[in-house]
Specification:
single chain, alpha+beta, Immunoglobulin-like, 3-stranded antiparallel sheet, about 30% strand
């Protein structure tokens, strides 16, 4: 295979990856909504959801009632159906066992608190991530976009050393995705994206090494 053909093939790889990343970014942007509270937990860990109940600037009475409703992230079927929360005087809470929190994603819903005739509604999200931290998508996208720019720069400059750096960036991004996941996607898809990024990084790394050896032999 001629060098020009090889470069075209790898450019196609990069173009496909750019399209996939743009799709992920657009999907995440479309799913972003204003909410009153976001609860972040690690997958398969116990979730303790708490909410402050206030009535006229004071804590709600002992007879106040708060109910929570949440929906699954993928098909939006009911996860919690208007379940009552425990009144702890200054706040209400509900505990969800870890056996029910293994599916990664944003569980959107609301908490409705009523103290007598006074009722308040809060839009909430229970965000379940592989690590229990809310930093997966942004850093992953930054790393991959940086890798794409570096790889494109390597082709333009015809510099295998820059290609090495791009390959390493793809590998680091893939490892980060496998560990921390990407929001609003299930663990199967996040790992697939992460492994794909790692494989691309290895391919670019090997290709850069090959180009380096060939160039040395030509000299």
């Amino acid at each position: 295979m001629k060098r020009t053909t090889k470069k075209i093939v790898y450019m196609v790889f990069v173009s496909v990856l750019i399209g996939a990343l743009m799709g992920v970014a657009m999907a995440n942007a479309a799913n972003m909504v204003d909410v009153d509270e976001v609860y972040i937990i690690k997958a398969c860990d116990k979730a303790d959801i708490t909410v402050q109940c206030a009535n006229g600037g004071a804590h709600c009475s002992a007879s106040a009632v708060c109910n929570i409703t949440l929906f699954y992230p993928s098909n939006y079927t009911i996860f919690l159906n208007d379940l009552p929360m425990t009144n702890q005087d200054t706040f209400h809470n509900i505990t969800i066992e870890g056996t029910k929190t293994c599916k990664i994603g944003d569980y959107r819903g609301s908490i409705v608190c009523c103290d007598g005739a006074n009722c308040n509604n809060a839009d909430v999200i229970l965000r379940i991530t592989p690590s229990g931290e809310d930093r997966g998508t942004a850093i992953s996208l930054i790393l991959i976009f940086a890798a794409i720019i570096v790889i494109l720069l390597a082709f333009v400059l015809k510099n295998e050393y820059v290609g090495f750096v791009g390959g390493i960036l793809f590998i680091v991004a893939g490892v980060h995705i496998v560990i921390y996941g990407m929001l609003n996607l299930s663990d199967v898809y996040t790992r697939t994206i992460g492994i794909t990024s790692i494989c691309l990084g290895v391919i670019f790394f090997i290709y850069a090494a090959y180009e380096g050896v060939v160039n040395k032999e030509e000299y």
